[in-house]
Amino acid sequence: MTNGTQKKVCLVTGVGDGTGASIVRRFAKEGYRVAMLARNMERLAKLEKELPGSKAYAFDLADLDRLVEVCRQVQTELGAPHVIVHNAVRATFEPFMEADPEDLERNFRVNTTSLLYMARELTPAMVKRGSGAIVVTGNTAALRGVPNYAVFAPTKAAQRILAQSLARDLGPKGVHVAYVTIDAAIDTPWTRIPFNPDKPDDFFSKPDAIAEEVFHVALQDRSTWSFDVELRPFGENW
Prior knowledge:
Layout (H helix, E strand, L loop, with lengths): L8 E5 L5 H11 L3 E6 L2 H10 L4 E4 L5 H14 L5 E4 L15 H28 L2 E7 L14 H18 L4 E8 L2 E2 L2 H4 L11 E2 L1 H12 L9 E4 L7
Parallel strand pairs: 1-2, 1-4, 2-3, 4-5, 5-6, 6-9, 7-8
Helix pairs in contact: 1-7, 3-4, 4-5
């Protein structure tokens, strides 16, 4: 391990311009060294420059062999993570008769199987330490199937159930696992245009606000741990 400062480490997948970047900044603000996993090296390099102590790992999370290598690399270069935030998502939206059946497996690999691989690689150190947290960001696809989500929603439902299995296994060992369902359109350029160009600001959930809740859940007192956490704008019908 090369991290002589012994700062806590947070690993975040799916570090895009929205929620992922906000989560990275929130943990870095608190003094964590953040391992940032995503495909876009240009975006990660900007964050790496902005946040001293952070480190970028650019690759496709669907490459599970590479994911194992990166998990081991993070432990060597930064230290064993205290917090894992699985924010990466792969989604395709077509009715089941029009969708490519292969997309079900592709979505599953990024959304669900990668979580299993990370847990297997990174939680033994948490258990040994007697503390740690895994926070998975989800959406209502984990709870409800709709026609255009036929090869996406099953992967998010499985992701939530896997997270619950991890929570029941790891909780008594001191490791907190939580699932944060974001029942909202997140305020990013690509969710506003072309999908919601005429919606007011308070229609959207703010990435920084989501990151604040993820941070809060990750650091909950062990006497009051949450598993299912739901976030939505105040005006959302549910």
